[in-house]
């Protein structure tokens, strides 16, 4: 009797275990289906928006140019009139335009660009400004990011300030705004300015307070490099390990390394030849090494900028001048070629209309 009860109990346990297992399987299946549906809906919306934008391209370019010029002028006014509000403008810009860029880049298969260091550094800066605005050490780390790799990327990677392109304006501001934000906090913000000019004393103290040169190098170079190394490890794991098969299946999905490799190979420039010193299969590691050297060098240059107001002002002018110069080169040299190529492509795609006299009605209908 006891044996039969034990058998029934074991059977019931097995059935209940199977039911739980089946329930978990169904739930996980529903989660996957919901995720796929959401992805599909977002992709469809992005595709529809992109198609509508292409249909009204000229009008959108004019509106973008108007908004870009007015927006940049308005920002310059705020920079001079109320420098303490510049961090708020930057935060508003970032939380508005970066999600919109993700939607657009998702449609273009460029969304892995948002894993680049510039977005990582901007996100850390955003968190610092919103949650830890008085933390001096975090300020110095973000200062190193903003006036180091992000600022020099404008010059090295030729970021262009083109007012009729939302994409190019966003790219420039992602690299330019953080430096301007930390410049204003360092030198122009009324609160920090009062700390640097205390009443009743001629002696000038600084904000953040720097104890000695080793403290300065620790928080402007060594600690930021540790944070950068963490990003590089995470980037490598995501792009080259976890999502490797995705890139192998779809060559249209772009990353920074893919784009730079394609351009360097096409131009067969010195960077392409130099990256092959250890063989073609090690180009990725050479790219990582180049980027690390660039980061170390540019972060080291933030030390004199942090100490000298006049040098820092000159650097702000240099950054803006480089972006404007690159924008002028793009408008005057690149855009005319793009317009010619677009018109040529439209002409080739347009069906040839045959004369009415030479074609029978059925053929005319099929051609038109």
Proportion of residues in β-strands: under 5%
- Overall pLDDT level: 81
Low-confidence stretches: 352-368
> Largest sheet at a glance?
none
What's the order of the H and E elements?
Answer: HHHHHHHHHHHHHHH
Q: Report the total helices.
A: 15
Distance between the termini: 87 Å
What does the overall shape look like?
globular
Structure description:
With 368 residues, the protein is mostly helical. It is built from 15 helices and no strands. The longest helix is centred in the first third of the chain and has 54 residues, at 2-55. The termini are far apart. The model is unreliable at 352-368 (pLDDT under 50).
Task: Provide the fold topology.
Elements: H1 2-55, H2 57-81, H3 86-108, H4 117-131, H5 136-156, H6 166-188, H7 190-196, H8 213-242, H9 244-249, H10 256-267, H11 270-274, H12 283-300, H13 302-307, H14 309-349, H15 361-367
List its salient traits:
mainly alpha; 80% helix; 0% strand; 15 helices; 368 residues; disordered C terminus
Provide a compact summary of the structure.
With 368 residues, the protein is an all-alpha fold. The chain is built from 15 helices and no strands. The model is unreliable at 352-368 (pLDDT under 50).
């Amino acid at each position: 009797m006891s044996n039969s009860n034990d058998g029934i109990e074991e059977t019931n346990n097995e059935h209940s275990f199977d039911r739980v297992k089946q329930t978990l399987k169904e739930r996980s299946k529903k989660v996957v289906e919901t995720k796929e549906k959401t992805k599909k809906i977002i992709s469809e919306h992005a595709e529809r928006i992109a198609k509508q934008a292409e249909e009204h391209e000229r009008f959108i370019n004019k509106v973008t140019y108007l908004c870009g010029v007015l927006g940049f002028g308005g920002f310059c006014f705020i920079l001079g009139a109320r420098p303490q509000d510049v961090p708020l403008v930057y935060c508003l810009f970032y939380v508005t335009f970066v999600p919109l860029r993700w939607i657009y880049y998702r449609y273009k298969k460029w969304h892995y660009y948002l894993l680049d260091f510039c977005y990582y550094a901007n996100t850390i800066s955003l968190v610092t400004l919103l949650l830890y605005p008085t933390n001096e050490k975090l300020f110095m780390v973000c200062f190193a990011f903003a006036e180091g790799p992000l600022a020099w990327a404008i010059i090295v990677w030729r970021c262009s300030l083109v007012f009729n392109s939302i994409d190019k304006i966003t790219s420039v501001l992602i690299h330019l705004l953080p430096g301007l934000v930390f410049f204003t906090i360092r030198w122009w913000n009324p609160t920090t300015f009062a700390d640097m000019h205390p009443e009743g004393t001629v002696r000038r103290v600084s904000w953040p307070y720097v104890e000695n040169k080793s403290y300065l190098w620790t928080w402007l170079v060594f600690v930021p490099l540790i944070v950068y190394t963490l990003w590089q490890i995470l980037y490598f794991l995501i792009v080259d390990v976890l999502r490797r098969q995705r890139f192998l299946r779809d060559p249209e999905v772009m990353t920074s390394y893919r784009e730079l490799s394609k351009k360097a190979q096409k131009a067969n420039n010195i960077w392409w030849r130099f990256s092959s010193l250890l063989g073609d299969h090690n180009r990725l590691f050479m790219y990582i090494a180049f980027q690390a050297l660039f980061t170390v060098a540019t972060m080291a240059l933030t030390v004199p900028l942090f100490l000298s107001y006049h040098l820092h002002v000159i650097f702000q002018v240099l950054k803006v001048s480089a972006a404007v110069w690159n924008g002028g080169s793009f408008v005057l040299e690149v855009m005319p070629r793009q317009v010619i190529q677009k018109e040529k492509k439209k002409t080739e795609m347009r069906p040839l209309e045959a004369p009415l006299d030479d074609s029978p009605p059925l053929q005319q209908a099929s051609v038109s």
